Amino acid sequence: MSDSISTKIDFLKQLGSDKFKHRNQSLLEHLIGVRDLLKKWGAPEYVQDGGLFHSVYGTTYFKPQMTTDRDAVRDLIGEKAEELAYWFCFLDSPRSQRIAILENEQLKKDLLLIDKANEEDQANASMDRLDFYKDV
């Protein structure tokens, strides 16, 4: 893992993301899972970072708000990534429909990719749990 990623993950740990439960994993595990999917799909680094921080301010679905300090997040991950994280956190439900009506095409494309990774990581975590129970 690169120093840059380690620094970002350490920041998320300092905010307590490894202590929050997110379905059947920690929030930190979910955030890393989203980032890993985005990386696997060849998303630009700023989109990967936006995915890693996609719920740092809380979301309509996931209420814990780890921070309100946008400057600290922006300093760590950059302006484009922080903007993605911010938008993702504050879009109302149903999120994919809210994203689809945004006028900025690049913002829309990036947020839809993060949303897809978010949903896929949650589905993968749920499947892992089902696999666990098959062996019990």
Offer a few descriptive terms.
mainly alpha; 136 residues; 7 helices; two-stranded antiparallel sheet; globular; disordered C terminus
Measured on Cα atoms, how large is the radius of gyration? 14 Å
Count of helix runs = 7
Kindly report the oligomeric state of this protein. single chain
Number of domains: 1
Mean pLDDT: 89
String of helices and strands: HEEHHHHHH
Beta fraction of the residues? under 5%
State the low-pLDDT regions, or none: 129-136
Residue share in helices? 55-70%
**Spatial order of the strands in the main sheet?**
1-2
Tally of strands = 2
Q: What is the first-to-last residue Cα distance? A: 34 Å
Structural class: mainly alpha
Brief synopsis:
This protein is mostly helical. The chain has helices at residues 3-14, 27-40, 45-52, 70-77, 79-90, 95-100, 105-134, and strands spanning 21-22, 25-26. It has a two-stranded antiparallel sheet with strand order 1-2.
